[in-house]
Amino acid sequence: MVQPGLPRLTPVTGESTSIGLFGWSKGFVAFSADGGPSSGTGRAVTLSATASRDGAHWTPTRPIDLTGFADQVTVVSVVEGPAGLLAVGHNPMDTCGGPPAVAALWRSADGIAWKRVTGPKLLVDAPPDR
User: Fold this and answer.
1) Closest to 8 (Cα-Cα) out of 65, 77, 59
2) pTM score
3) What is the pLDDT along the chain (130 residues), one digit of tens a residue?
4) In what side-by-side order are the strands of the sheet with 74-81?
5) Alpha carbons 61 and 117: distance in angstroms, whole number
């Protein structure tokens, strides 16, 4: 079922909601992230996605697995490769900033169903080279 109009994501309830829209050769994907301690809302962390072939008709929003995350994860980049899409998730910056770190990766062949990519611990925990 495809819904007409703008993507139907998590309702924006304050400054803590993060929404990202990305294009690729087969259409568009949109993500909504919210909750966790850094949001100051007391809500549980959520991440959801929807997709569209034409930007006007969107699939129903589907939750993305955040098992093991206590704080918000925002999709900051989506890259396209031969097998589909790779979404890059970051944790929110702390008060003093700091370098962005990859919190998680998800892959999708169609932009609708997203599966978490697991990899070496160093891949997600290593600080950037200086």
Assistant:
1) 59
2) 0.78
3) 555 565 656 555 556 678 899 999 999 999 998 877 666 777 788 899 999 999 989 999 999 988 888 888 889 999 999 999 999 998 876 656 666 678 889 999 999 999 999 866 545 444 444 4
4) 74-81, 84-90, 102-108, 115-117
5) 20
Token output for 41: 């809302």
AA identity, residue 21: L
Helices (H) and strands (E) in the chain, counts: 1, 10
DSSP 36-88: SGGGTS-PPPEEEEEEESSSSEEPPPEE---TT--S--EEEEEEEETTEEEEE
Rounded Cα gap, residues 113 and 61, in angstroms:
10
Domain parsing of the chain, residue ranges: 3-123
Pairing of strands 27-34, 46-52: antiparallel
